[in-house]
Design brief:
Elements (H helix, E strand, L loop, with lengths): L1 H32 L37 H10 L5 H14 L5 H5 L17 H17 L3 H7 L5 H4 L8 E5 L4 E6 L2 E7 L22 E7 L20 E3 L9 H5 L7 E5 L4 E6 L5 E6 L4 E6 L7 E9 L4 E3 L11 E5 L3 E4 L2 E4 L1 H4 L6 E5 L3 E4 L10 E4 L1 E8 L3 E6 L6 H7 E6 L3 E6 L4 E6 L4 E5 L2 E5 L3 E8 L4 E7 L7 E8 L4 E8 L8 E5 L7 E4 L10
Parallel strand pairs: 28-30
Antiparallel strand pairs: 1-2, 2-3, 3-4, 5-10, 6-7, 7-8, 8-9, 9-19, 10-18, 11-13, 12-15, 13-14, 14-19, 15-18, 16-17, 20-21, 21-22, 22-25, 23-24, 24-27, 25-26, 26-29, 27-28
Family: Belongs to the polysaccharide lyase 8 family.
GO biological process, one term: carbohydrate metabolic process
Protein name: Chondroitin AC lyase
Length: about 550
């Protein structure tokens, strides 16, 4: 008898606990679902479940980006979270569900024409609204209240305990299939986007990004908080950050067809050892350009077309944040609002320093800096959005040149511009070879634009039998060379690189298997033991380094 009593007591206790837990869940759920208590509910709908002040036009009569009719769902959701308006909520929901468009055929496959729909159907010629936007407006609030979802998301408050990467990734990575490179350090993040014949320049859908025809021309973002927030309607789209284009480039482009098309050249890509990187592109204009990504600086080397046309290289174009200073006027003399043309060898803005080394050596290359007061930019300029306006002050800097040139970006002010110039040595910058040395790091970036060319730097000579990109790190007191090689064309089966150590004349050949045709980086350590012989590597994508 006693065991039965104990079991009954335990069972009763468990039931109390369960009831208590359910009450707690109910209380928490209801507290989240309750509507606003400040009287900010939408006005009640009419008897048919509609609101007279909402524009219910659908189909081709309304824009593809903004659809005022979705306000109906927003108001319905707000009422559903409140007490005492159940009938009005159901009427509004019934109105929508009875007219909601469900046939995917026309808007999914024939979006270029106006679909034949009943007059009272709620639909938009942009299929996103009916297949994603509307269902999500109903689904997400409900799903968030499900017990399983609540239980899973409770762990988010302790996400650091489950984080696979508790520290941010640091290093360099080339995304060879996307013609994209990322360079991360603790205090900055830089990205470069290009477009080869394998990759679309950008995306242009629903009339958005209509001016993005140069987004694959080597756009370089030096990312700091707020640097490019909502700046796009204010851009000169022939002067995007980091690009080099003919100075005569004017006007817009041919619309979405140009933006969505692929690039024009196969030589786009780079080599990365996970810490440093070299990225290169050859554009339709014949410009050969490379980014050499070291620790404290990114060196950008440019070889224009052979016809001597004047080129414009854009140092940056971003939101104006604080003062702009330069070597022309000094640290304590901020440049005023407007356009200034001078020949500085450094410019500083928002903790980023832009260095034109040739001017430090007396070249007197004019650099244009344009700063503005806050001004309005309309998103309708680059999309079909009709109403949205962004107001920002902007900073843009560029210089023009006819022959080969280079500049340096220092993404934080801790680095002395003079020390940067001393550290970086341009050994070659021609249409055959570009070779940049960072003396402080013992790191060398090389772009072989032509086959059987040689790059020379102190103590070493490197020759490649095919056009390729090479990153070399000098190790062990100038005895060893760690070489990373990539084929930007994705077409070569094999690349051979010959290395000569000038201190003793020892040489060797590194034969790299690139038959996967994926543009991947291959790293080999040459230690001098393979004199006049061959070594092979079947490299793999390099990971980020973590510190």
């Amino acid at each position: 008898m006693a065991p039965r009593i104990v079991i009954l007591l335990i069972a009763a206790s468990l039931m109390c606990c369960i009831a208590s837990d359910f009450d707690l869940i109910k209380l928490r759920t209801l507290s989240d679902l309750r509507g606003p208590s400040d009287g900010s509910l939408p006005p009640p709908p009419s008897a048919d479940g509609t609101w007279r002040d909402i524009d219910y036009r659908s189909g081709c009569a309304i824009g593809r980006v903004e659809w005022p009719a979705v306000q109906h769902l927003d108001r319905t959701l707000a009422m559903a979270r409140s007490c005492g308006v159940a009938n009005a909520t159901l009427a509004a929901l019934d109105f929508w569900f009875k007219r909601d468009y469900r046939d995917e055929g026309c808007t999914d496959t024939e979006s270029d024409r106006c679909c034949d729909m009943p007059d009272d159907t709620l639909w938009n010629s942009n299929w996103w609204w009916n297949r994603i936007g509307d269902p999500r407006a109903v689904r997400d609030p409900v799903r968030a209240k499900l017990p399983d979802m609540r239980a899973m998301t409770d762990s988010w408050a302790r996400r650091d305990e489950f984080a696979a990467l508790p520290t941010p990734p640091l290093g360099n990575r080339v995304y060879a299939s996307s013609d994209y490179v990322i360079h991360r350090r603790p205090n900055y993040f830089v990205s470069v986007k290009a477009a080869s014949e394998r990759v679309a320049v950008s995306e242009c859908i629903n009339g958005e990004n209509t001016l993005g025809h140069r987004l694959g021309d080597g756009v370089m973002f030096v990312n700091r908080p707020g640097a490019y927030d909502d700046v796009f309607p204010l851009w000169n789209w022939n002067a995007l950050p980091g690009i080099t284009v003919p100075a005569s480039a004017r006007g817009d482009n041919g619309g979405c067809a140009t933006v969505s098309g692929k690039g024009d050249d196969d030589f786009v890509g780079g080599a990365s050892d996970g810490h440093f990187g070299v990225f290169a592109m050859r554009s339709a204009d014949g410009i050969r350009k490379a980014w050499f990504m070291f620790d404290d600086e990114i060196v950008v080397a440019i070889v224009p077309t052979s016809d001597g046309e004047t080129m414009r290289s854009v140092l940056d174009s971003r939101v104006l944040r604080g003062d702009v200073t330069s070597s022309a006027y000094g640290d304590r003399a901020p440049m005023g609002i407007g356009r200034t043309r001078s020949s500085p060898w450094w410019i500083r803005h928002d903790s980023v320093t832009y260095i034109v080394p040739d001017n430090a050596r007396g070249a007197n290359t004019p650099v244009d800096v344009v700063t503005t007061v806050p001004r309005d930019g309309r998103w309708s300029r680059i999309s079909t959005s009709e109403k949205t306006v962004t107001t920002k002050a902007t900073f843009t800097a560029w210089f023009e040149h006819r022959g080969p040139s280079h500049y340096i970006i220092v993404p934080h002010t801790a680095q002395d511009p003079i020390a940067t110039i001393d550290d970086v040595v341009v050994r070659q910058n021609s249409d055959a070879v570009q070779c940049i040395v960072n003396k402080r790091l013992g790191t060398v970036g090389i772009v072989f634009w032509e086959a059987w060319e040689t790059a020379s730097f102190p103590g070493w000579r490197v020759t490649a039998n095919r056009p390729c990109v090479v990153l070399a790190v000098i190790e062990d007191a100038d005895r060893h060379l760690r070489i990373t090689i990539a084929d930007p064309t994705h077409k070569l089966d094999r690349v051979s690189v010959s290395v000569t150590r000038e201190s003793d004349g020892v040489s060797g050949t590194l034969a790299i298997d690139t038959s996967a045709h994926n543009g991947a980086s291959h790293t080999v350590l040459w230690d001098g033991s393979a004199s006049d012989s061959e070594m092979s590597s079947s490299g793999r994508p390099r990971p980020f380094l973590f510190h």
